[in-house]
């Protein structure tokens, strides 16, 4: 036996780089097609190459890595790839501010981050690395665009867009925040601009995107996506104006049509100008100008005082022939439904407030059951429209449950409208007036229109020699030669599209590029696709719930319809981690000075400790504030493990039968719970279970168990369970305890149910000293559990009669006496 004083110290700084090199040299984490093994595609969201892997990245990636490692030990052929989402604004801003080319800035940053990722000890197969700004990558991003364009899934139209005057670019609706509608990146209030833009027809997929039945995604993400899409059933109804125009409205309550006493058009609605009478012209023009300055979110705020202006024009209610005034008001949004509404003040609160303010008539058309007949003049607010139809001509008396359907049948029969569905989801605006993105592969020809670049000529490469002027135009527009070309169809002089694609386009398909990042015949090697797809577990931040995670589902479905991908969904299971906050409980930021730098932590404690702490300190999906003394607990644990496994028992101690049984029981019970927890990504309880088992092993060692069969088994189980969490120390101890390289190639152990079984005892239950019941309970039952079990016994309940006991006495392992 080795001399205990010769146990070396645990020195992560020495062992971690050593194993990382060895694993890399041996290609230990290479994932190749193997038809004899089941595959597992574990994907974690790729980072933007900002140049620094922060603690949030570690929090997202190292537990994901542990889960992937666990799956591998379970016998799956696991692919865990990594890459960089490298197009986007910060690179361009760095170019403008520091005069460094985005290409150079990006590749320097990637170099740094790749090293940082390696220091994490993750099982990344670096041969599969992909970077979206590489021409070999965006070649295929452009190819996808062309497939979409050829199949009418991409189109251009003039649109009013949100534009950041500081970043000089269009923003997606999701990138505009707050009541003041500021830019997500720089905080500048955005303005509206009319530009010809490119869109993807994501709305074609609205209904299918609402179906989550085949995927295991968090409820919260499903809700966010469902609300984002916001499907409403109702009717489209046409109202004729007195000067012969038609106003179409979308309503969710066609059964209230007889109560429509006025109409409201959004200020931007094209009919506003036509309908406005000369007397009202000035008021309407002023109102429109004022509305234009306001943002949609601000306008949608329900409790805002309603404002509006009468256009002077009238329309005819198509069901009762009433002449009703047409107003314009900013509580009606141009981007929703048709941008026009029929106002039913008796049953819609916003319309009610508007009607009272401007003295417009209120007509009750729904009578709630079991209430006095409603009188419009006495109402102080709109009445929810549930009940029997009244004042509704031929439909009067229709019961509430069929009113909706009958009203639709009626307007369809009269030819004034039809059943319709409306969505909040808009088509995806993908064009950006920026340089650092994938150029949209279109050539504009004055004869032929928008012509896609022939596929053989892809990629349309970004020119490297551009000028950095934040002009609001893409720098590609200012390039002296790049944009001038010839039309692929007629050969005439033509110009390239100078907009680039939204970076969410690049990230909609990166999981496919990882399959074969060097393949140059197609976006991916079909053989790799057949083996690896779909992604089995996808992990990343909840903040991507409505953009990336909707876009990538749309992308996959669109590609499926074009015969490029198969199956309805790209990612079967999704799990979101929470956020690591600063020690001050605030979001980490440089300006607050509360940023925790993983590189410093790795230098001080080693990667394994950082990994263990990140898995331990919070429930993964919730996150928590950082705690710099907490991480000390993790290094102490690993040092203990180190000595537990290396330092023998005192000479001469012989363990008893019961000591060894206890050790085996704890080891297998831990294995059962750790297995369950890995499956369910409950990382914090994995670490705490391992801490407990280590304590049990120390006790067993005190009793002389070191080196016994039971000890050897516990040691092997321990290191295999530790391997996914702390891959380096597990590998080092695996070697030092005499096992063959590598712990990471070991199968996940099987629980020995017999060993894990708790021994049971009979607990006597007394009431006032008299025997009333006997309970079979585990030997290790805690005092609290024993008391609860006794109090819950039917025999005891009879004596308690619903009252609390006076006193409960517990004699460990023997009896509970309840005094009533
Ligand atoms: C008459 C009516 C009566 C309505 C009633 C509601 C209740 P969701 O459920 O969100 O789809 N609406 C339609 N287009 C609008 C727009 N562009 N801006 C503001 N409001 C608009 O809401 C659909 C309902 O919101 C529609 O049904 C319409 O008002 C209003 F008792 O029509 B309703
Ligand atoms: Zn042409």
Bound molecules: ligand ANZ, zinc ion
Shape: globular
In the CATH hierarchy, the third-tier topology of the largest domain is known as Rossmann fold
The helical percent reads: 25-40%
Helix-strand category: alpha+beta
- Assembly of the depicted chains: single chain
Distance between the termini: 60 Å
The appropriate CATH architecture of the largest domain is 3-Layer(aba) Sandwich
Mean pLDDT: 93
Q: Please, how many helices?
A: 27
Strand content: 15-25%
CATH superfamily of the largest domain: HUPs
Look at the structure and give the CATH class of the largest domain: Alpha Beta
Unreliable segments of 5+ consecutive residues: none
Radius of gyration: 34 Å
Pfam families: Anticodon_1, tRNA-synt_1, tRNA-synt_1_2
Family: Belongs to the class-I aminoacyl-tRNA synthetase family.
Catalytic activity: tRNA(Leu) + L-leucine + ATP = L-leucyl-tRNA(Leu) + AMP + diphosphate
Enzyme class: ligase
Question: Secondary-structure blueprint of this entry?
Answer:
Blueprint (H helix, E strand, L loop, with lengths): L11 H15 L12 E6 L10 H19 L3 E3 L3 E2 L4 H10 L3 H18 L10 E2 L3 H16 L3 E11 L4 E3 L4 E2 L4 E2 L7 E10 L5 H4 L9 H11 L1 E11 L4 E6 L10 E4 L5 H5 L5 H12 L3 H5 L7 E9 L6 E7 L10 E4 L5 H10 L7 E2 L20 E2 L10 H15 L2 E7 L4 E2 L1 E2 L9 E4 L3 E4 L22 H4 L5 E3 L6 E4 L3 E2 L1 H4 L3 H4 L12 H7 L2 E7 L6 H14 L9 E7 L1 E3 L16 H8 L1 H10 L6 E3 L4 H17 L10 H23 L3 H20 L6 H14 L4 H10 L16 H4 L3 E8 L2 E9 L4 H10 L1 H7 L6 E5 L3 E5 L1
Parallel strand pairs: 1-2, 1-26, 3-4, 12-14, 26-27, 28-29, 30-33
Antiparallel strand pairs: 5-6, 5-9, 7-8, 9-19, 10-11, 10-13, 10-18, 12-15, 13-14, 16-17, 20-25, 21-22, 21-24, 23-24, 30-31, 32-33
């Amino acid at each position: 036996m080795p001399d205990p004083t010769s146990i070396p110290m645990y020195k992560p700084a020495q062992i971690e780089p050593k194993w990382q090199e060895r694993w890399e040299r041996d290609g230990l984490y290479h994932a190749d097609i193997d038809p004899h093994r089941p595959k597992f595609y574990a994907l974690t969201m790729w980072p933007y190459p900002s140049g620094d892997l922060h603690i949030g990245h570690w929090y997202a990636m190292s537990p994901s890595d542990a889960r992937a490692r666990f799956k591998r030990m379970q016998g799956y052929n696991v692919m865990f790839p990594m890459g960089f989402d490298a197009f986007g604004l910060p690179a361009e801003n760095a170019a403008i501010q520091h005069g460094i080319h985005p290409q150079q800035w990006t590749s320097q940053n990637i170099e740094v981050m790749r090293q940082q990722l390696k220091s994490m000890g993750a099982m990344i197969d670096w041969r599969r690395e992909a970077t979206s700004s590489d021409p070999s990558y965006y070649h295929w991003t452009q190819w996808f665009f062309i497939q979409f364009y050829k199949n009418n899934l991409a189109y251009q139209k003039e649109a009013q867009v949100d534009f950041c005057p500081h970043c000089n670019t269009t923003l997606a609706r999701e990138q505009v925040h707050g009541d003041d509608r500021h830019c997500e990146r720089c905080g500048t209030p955005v303005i509206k601009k009319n530009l010809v833009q490119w869109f993807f027809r994501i709305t074609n997929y609205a209904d299918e995107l609402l179906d989550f039945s085949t995927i295991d995604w968090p409820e919260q993400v499903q809700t966010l996506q469902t609300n984002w899409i916001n499907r409403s059933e109702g009717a489209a109804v046409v109202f004729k104006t007195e000067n012969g125009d038609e106003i179409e409205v979308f309503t969710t309550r066609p059964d209230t049509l007889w109560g429509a006493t006025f109409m409201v058009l959004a200020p931007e609605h094209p009919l506003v100008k036509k309908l406005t009478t000369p007397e009202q012209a000035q008021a309407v023009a002023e109102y429109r100008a004022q509305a234009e300055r306001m943002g949609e979110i601000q306008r949608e705020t329900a409790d805002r005082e309603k404002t509006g202006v009468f256009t002077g024009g009238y329309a005819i209610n198509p069901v009762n022939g009433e002449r009703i005034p047409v107003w314009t008001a900013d509580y009606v949004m141009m981007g929703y439904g048709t941008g026009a509404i029929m106002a039913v003040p008796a049953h819609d609160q916003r319309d009610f407030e508007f009607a009272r303010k401007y003295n417009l008539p209120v007509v009750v058309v729904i009578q709630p059951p079991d209430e006095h007949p409603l009188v419009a003049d006495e109402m102080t607010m709109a009445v929810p429209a549930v009940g029997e139809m009244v004042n509704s001509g031929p439909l009067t008396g229709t019961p509430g449950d069929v009113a909706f359907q009958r009203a639709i049948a009626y307007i369809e029969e009269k030819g004034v409208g039809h059943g319709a569905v409306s969505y909040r989801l808009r088509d995806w605006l993908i064009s950006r007036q920026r340089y650092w993105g994938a150029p949209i592969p279109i050539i504009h020809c004055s004869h032929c229109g928008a012509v896609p670049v022939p596929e053989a000529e892809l990629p349309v490469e970004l020119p490297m020699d551009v000028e950095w002027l934040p002009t609001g135009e893409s720098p590609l527009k200012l390039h002296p030669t790049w944009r001038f070309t010839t039309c692929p169809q007629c050969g005439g002089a033509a110009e390239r599209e100078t907009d680039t694609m939204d970076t969410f386009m690049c990230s909609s398909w990166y999981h496919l590029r990882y399959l074969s990042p060097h393949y140059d015949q197609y976006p991916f090697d079909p053989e790799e696709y057949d083996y690896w797809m779909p992604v089995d577990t996808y992990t990343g931040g909840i903040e991507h719930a409505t953009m990336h995670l909707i876009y990538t589902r749309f992308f996959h479905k669109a590609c499926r319809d074009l015969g490029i991908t198969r199956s309805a969904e790209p990612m079967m299971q999704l799990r979101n981690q929470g956020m690591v906050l600063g020690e001050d409980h605030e979001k980490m930021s440089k300006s607050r000075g509360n940023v925790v730098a993983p590189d410093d932590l790795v230098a001080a404690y080693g990667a394994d400790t950082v990994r263990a702490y990140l898995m331990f300190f919070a429930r993964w999906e919730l996150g928590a504030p950082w705690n710099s003394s907490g991480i000390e607990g993790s290094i102490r644990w690993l040092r203990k493990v180190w000595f537990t496994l290396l330092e023998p028992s005192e000479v001469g101690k012989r363990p008893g039968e019961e000591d060894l049984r206890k050790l085996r029981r704890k080891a297998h019970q831990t294995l059962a719970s750790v297995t369950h927890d890995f499956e369910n990504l409950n990382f914090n309880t994995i670490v705490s279970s391992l801490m407990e088992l280590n304590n049990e092993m120390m006790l067993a060692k005190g009793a002389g168990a070191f080196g016994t069969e039971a000890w050897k088994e516990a040691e092997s189980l321990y290191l295999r369970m530790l391997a996914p969490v702390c891959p380096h120390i597990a590998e080092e101890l695996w070697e030092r305890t005499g096992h063959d390289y590598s712990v990471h190639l070991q199968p996940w152990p099987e629980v020995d149910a017999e060993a894990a079984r708790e021994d049971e005892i009979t607990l006597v239950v007394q009431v006032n000293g008299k025997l009333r019941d006997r309970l079979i309970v585990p030997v290790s039952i805690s005092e609290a559990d024993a008391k609860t079990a006794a109090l819950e016994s039917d025999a005891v309940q009879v004596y308690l009669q619903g009252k609390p006991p006076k006193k409960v006495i517990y004699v460990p392992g023997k009896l509970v006496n309840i005094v009533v």
